[in-house]
Amino acid sequence: MPARAASKSPQPRFSRAWPGLRGFWAWWLTALGSWLPPRLRAVFGLAQQRLLLRHEGETLSLALTLPVQPGEASIRELAELPWDAASAGDEPLRQLLVSRINSLPRWLLLSGRGGLRRRLSLPAAAADRLREVLGFEIDRQTPFTLDEVYYDARLLGRRGDGQIDAELIVVPRASLEHALDALGAPLRATLAGVDMADADGLPLGINLLPGAQRRHRRDPRAAWNIGLAIVALVALGAGLWQILTNREDAADAFEVQAKSRSQQAQKVSAEKKQLVDLVEGLRFLQQTRSGRPSTVEVLDELTRRLPDSTYIEKVSIEGERVMIIGLSSEAPRLVERLQTSKLWHSMNLTGALLPDPAKGKDRFTLAAELTIAPSAKAKPERRAAANPAGEP
Questions:
Q1: What DSSP line would sit under 254-271, residue for residue?
Q2: Is 187 helix (H, G, I), strand (E, B) or coil?
Q3: Are residues 195 and 302 in the same domain?
Q4: Of 69, 187, 237, 265, whose CB is crowded by the most CB atoms within 10 A?
Q5: Edge-to-edge order in the sheet of strand 59-65
Q6: In this model, does residue 176 exceed pLDDT 70?
């Protein structure tokens, strides 16, 4: 049971708040309309103009309500017509009025002498349901019962002590029905409401006509509201589409920028690798050159160790291998004389000695391996250990 009560609680709360929201909306539209000229207010439907009908004897007076501005009357008299309800046609005013005025809501304006007005002080909470609250005051404030009158209420002002000033306006049913019948059935059917004039002849801003008898004309602001709603939806859709497009463009630009930076990073990495390889290669060459004997050193060592009866025809150095070709009368002893040098090792004769009878010497061919310092061999060994699979 409590759950059911809790589920129904928002609806009464909303119904109590709705009159205040509706009043705020009306006040806001009125405030906006006050900044516009009367002609534009009429175009946008913010002027809330009405066509007032006053029937006195055999005369029907027509007046037009105007927006209240400084130095401007609130109503403007249009015409006074001789009136006979019996002879009035279906649309007695259509041919007499221009289309703009003819399309305005028509209101019957009663004389102030035909009704009863009572001013009351009520709690501020009664403002949201003022007409309903004052309906219970008819029996106490007037000599009539609720069934004998048509009534309405209006808010006069709010006081600082939490009270409001309100006014109850009642008209006997018989009196109002007589005034409506005097217009004739065709004109009566076109009425949107019945108002009452104050002491200055201006409408009070109430509606004494029962809701079932009111003619509801098309709201002149409906087309504008629909148009503005469509424009708002289109603008919202365009804004969302633009946001989506901007996001997609930003994503595409970010992707292009990321690819560009990735390519730059790859290029920098490749250049760095090339530079490292070049530096390591140069270092290896320097270490190799510093660790292996030079050609001059090899020739100098041969010159000092070979006997005078020996001369060389060719010295070839390829990598770490040295080949010596020459003629000597002491060829068998050359290996013994040369193998103790620190510049090479594994000195030996390759092939047989070939005697040269013309010169009286033997042609020999010697081969040896250059001695490389350990600092020159360390680099290739480290490179081989770091790349066991033989990758470049």
A1: HHHHHHHHHHHHHHHHHH
A2: helix
A3: no
A4: 187
A5: 75-82, 59-65, 51-56, 106-110, 191-196
A6: yes
CA distance 52 to 80: 12
Q: What is the CATH number of the domain that holds 83?
A: 3.30.420
Distance CA 51, CA 108 (A): 9
Which tens digit of pLDDT belongs to each residue from 206-216? 998 888 888 77
Cβ(105)–Cβ(217) below 8 Å: yes
Confidence at 244, pLDDT banded by 50, 70, 90: very high
Q: Is 104 found in the same domain as 211?
A: yes
Measure CA of the first residue to CA of the last residue in the chain; give whole Å: 84
Same-domain status, 71 and 183: yes
Domains in the chain: how many in total? 2
If asked whether residues 194 and 306 sit together in one domain, one would say: no
pLDDT band at 74 (very low <50, low <70, confident <90, very high): confident
> Which DSSP string corresponds to 139-168?
HHHSSS-GGGEEEEEEEEEE-TTSEEEEEE
User: In this structure, which long-range contacts are made by residues 185-188, counting pairs with CB atoms below 8 Å and at least 24 apart in sequence?
Assistant: 186/88, 186/89, 186/90, 186/91, 186/92, 187/53, 187/85, 187/88, 187/92, 187/93, 187/106
Expressed as residue numbers, the domain containing 148 is: 34-219
Which amino acid does the sequence have at 31? A
Say whether pTM exceeds 0.85. Answer: no
Instruction: Round the average pLDDT of the chain to a whole number and report it.
Output: 80
Domain match, 212 and 319 both: no
> Where residue 324 sits, what CATH number does that domain have?
3.30.1360.100
Say if residue 348 is in the same domain as residue 203: no
Residue 6 is predicted with a pLDDT of 42
Query: 81-99, pLDDT tens digit by residue?
Result: 887 766 666 677 777 777 7
Examine the pLDDT at 43 and tell me if it is beyond 70.
Answer: no
Centre a 10 Å sphere on the Cβ of residue 352 and count the other Cβ atoms it contains. Answer: 10
DSSP state of 104: S
Residue 6 lies in a domain: no
